[in-house]
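Hi U.,

Before I forget, here's the chain from the pilot set. I'm dumping it here mostly so it's searchable later in email.
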Amino acid sequence: MFIRVNDLDMHVLVGGPPGAPCIVLLHSLGTNLHVWDPQAAALARSFRVIRPDLRGHGLTTVTAGATTIATLARDVISLLETLGITEAHVCGLSIGGMVAQSVAAQVPDRVTSLILCDTAMAIPTAESWRARAVAVRAHGMGAIADGVMARWVTEPFLDSPQAAGLRAMLLRTDPEGYASGALAIAVADLAEDTARLSMPTLILVGDEDVSTPPAYARAMHAAIAGSELQIIEGAAHIPTLERPEAVTAAIRAFITPEITDFYDAGMAVRRQVLGEAHVQRSLDAMTEFDAPFQEFITRTAWGGVWTRPGLDRRTRSILVLAILASLGHHEEFRLHVRASRNTGATPGDISEMLIQVAAYAGIPAANSAVRIAKELFSEMPS
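Structure:
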């Protein structure tokens, strides 16, 4: 989709369940949102994944002249405001990691956690970035392609299809967009702001990254109190494509820690799926009589089942609706039809599911559920 953000028409892909926690993935200089394809596909099972093309990149508007990391961060903040997202995990690669640091510094209360991948608080030298800007403006992206690719991935990976895709992203980047970003890096020094960050932070770096080497990652680790540092072996500057499984596993483990309290975990998912207002009404109406039951369903169904990673939230939603329709549990069926707005299960999904119910659980059961679903969808905003 395209969204008007500040002076841009920003291109952004949004995936995953609408009611799930959000994660923003910010790409590197000279690439676009597709540099996160492997991670986005995996994370969208449980998270609302937001991937913008940054200013001057991909399909987003190219603006003339230099920009700043702070400006790029304000673009992201405005995008989230436009999408109605009040809080998100923010993850950035290279210049995207610098933008993520700036987002966290500008609106720390809206950043759930920070993931900084192959980036730094400052990336020298300023002269080299200015030289790149001059080169691409004068001769196009081909003038720097070989040198950049040699830094982005390890030598054995250069002949891979993924490396060919990276090269295509680089060559198709608008030279002015690249130059603008390069000049932003040239003058950026985020050390003072980054040292004040206090949200949970994960720092990832390829062990063979020469653009933002492990020493830069260790400097961020020392600057951000309580941060975690993980080295990705066998990777250079773009591990999202060179070592996608390792990067995905690290991010997922960081933003979905092991559950130690199934009641709290269940309550969080229950609120995300059923909606804050519904859950709060249930809690406000709770008495001594039903308190043990409320605790049981929150801990067991929501905490013990809905949090499991084996099925994405949309699939669980469809399964629950099928079971409730088959058993004729119409009150709960109504509840979960309404909740489908937050799980990613579409009216088309539910219509198809009810045909399956008719074939395997009986036409009368499906007929009643179809009538209820039609009524609810007519009332729900599209």
